[in-house]
Design brief:
CATH superfamily: Single-stranded right-handed beta-helix, Pectin lyase-like
Radius of gyration: 21 Å
Number of strands: 33
Largest sheet: 27 strands, parallel
CATH class: Mainly Beta
Strand content: 35-45%
CATH architecture: 3 Solenoid
Shape: globular
Length: 429
């Protein structure tokens, strides 16, 4: 059932990039610093540029608390945070210039992420220091829902969705200043050979780590603690050969959400997220521990999830979110050896009525989901599946599992082809 051969084949293809060991010290580029929230982004970016221009190496940010605007990574550069480094990012939107980006699966021109790279190779963010986005409900997070109940971003979200629907050229999808589409913390777009290790990330404007159309990615030993709205921990989007391991997630939304573009944009590019391995991670807070979608129009396949520990305030363990506007095929999902102390709602939640629901002509497909060796101590219910006409949910296998503390009967509404196989599995209320 669990395709160990395929998993090992994927692991063999994922490699840690190598870097020149020459060190470039940011402190040598700081002309003056009075510990009064001085902006050292010029020093960081100048150090990165010199490192890049001289064949690459390690850019060292010193111990201490520093303030910065956006950082742009370059090829062959390892951005290294020392143990006592706290790098705080300004929350003033005027410090964030516009770049080509994806915002929730749709291409546009919008604020740069706090750390950004485009079309680079061999890039890393390492060290045990802390990246602090300083987001809270007095700045970035208020754009989602401010203290007066205003949803400032709603008009821009609708405008961007309409641009996607009407195939408006990217050059005309301009947001940024005087608009309210929050930046991601780290977005690495069209990059190859990415290594993110050991860092701590807190208080992001929205999504934390967002590789897009990238390949050969290792994210390991990180800690994310960011409980704001849309604060997903890690969002590989249209990426190939990804390893996420030994990491801890306290998030305000999904801990890990795998995506592949939204609607027309996703179908036009038509590049799935595939060959992704998630192992030995701990998830403690968020909507879903692992979510596929809802931006999945390019498809998702060959996902391996194993040896994870789930506890705390998570709503669900594994979710698939899709609808008839987005569509896309999700297949070959392997889940093995998961220990869950407590989840508030569902172990497996497939929701094809998400957002726009059945109002389109694109078929959501979920096929071949293999689940084995699961131990759940407390769970409201195991399955919550809502499909729509012309959609497909097929070949779900549940083997050698134990579910305890169940409260509700299953909710399963599946149209067309489906096949749920339950083997050597116990359900205890």
């Amino acid at each position: 059932m669990y395709n160990f051969k395929k998993k090992e084949s994927i692991l063999d293809q994922i490699k840690v990039p190598s870097f020149n060991q020459k060190k470039y010290f940011v402190k040598e580029y700081i002309k003056s610093y009075h510990k009064k929230k001085d902006d050292i982004s010029y020093a960081i970016n100048n150090t990165i540029n010199d490192c890049y221009n001289n064949g690459g190496g390690i850019v060292v940010i010193p111990n201490g608390e520093f303030y910065t605007g956006p950082i742009t990574l370059k090829s062959n550069v390892n951005l290294y945070l020392q143990h006592n480094t706290i790098l705080k990012f300004y929350t003033d939107p005027y410090k964030y210039y516009n770049v080509f980006t994806r915002w929730e699966g749709t291409e546009c021109i919008n604020y740069t992420s706090l750390i950004y790279a485009y079309n680079q190779k061999n890039i890393a963010i390492t060290g045990t220091g802390t990246l602090d986005g300083q987001a809270n409900f007095n700045n970035w997070w208020s754009w989602k829902n401010d203290i007066n109940g205003n949803h400032l971003q709603n008009n821009d979200v609708k405008k961007l969705k309409d641009m996607n629907k009407n195939n408006i050229p990217i050059k005309n999808r301009v947001f940024g200043i005087d608009h309210f589409l929050r930046p991601n913390f780290i977005q690495l777009y069209l990059c190859k050979n990415i290594f993110i290790s050991d860092i701590n990330i807190i208080n992001s404007p929205m999504w934390e780590i967002h590789p897009v159309l990238s390949q050969n990615i290792i994210i390991q030993n990180i800690k994310i603690n960011s409980l704001g709205p849309n604060n997903d921990g890690c969002n590989p989007e249209s990426c190939n050969n990804v390893l996420i391991q030994n990491s801890v997630f306290y998030t305000g939304d999904d801990c890990i959400a795998i995506k592949s573009g939204t609607n027309n944009d996703g179908r036009k590019i038509n590049i799935p997220s595939k060959n992704i391995i998630i192992k030995k991670c701990n998830m403690y807070n968020g909507h879903g521990a692992i979510t596929l979608g809802s931006e999945c129009s390019g498809g998702i396949k060959n996902i391996f999830i194993e040896d994870c520990i789930i506890d705390g305030k998570l709503q669900s363990f594994f979710k698939i979110k899709n609808n008839a506007i987005r569509g896309g095929k999700i297949n070959n999902i392997y889940i093995n050896n998961i220990n869950i102390a407590f989840i508030q709602k569902f172990f497996l939640n497939i929701d094809y009525l998400y957002d726009e629901g059945n109002k389109g002509n694109f078929i959501p497909i979920a096929d071949n989901i293999f689940i084995s060796n699961i131990n759940v101590e407390n769970c409201l219910q195991v399955f919550n599946i809502n499909s729509i006409e012309k959609s497909i949910v097929n070949n779900i296998f549940l083997k050698n599992c134990l579910f305890k503390g169940l409260k509700n009967p299953e909710k399963i509404l599946i149209y067309n082809n489906y096949n749920i196989n339950i083997i050597n599995t116990k359900f205890i209320s």
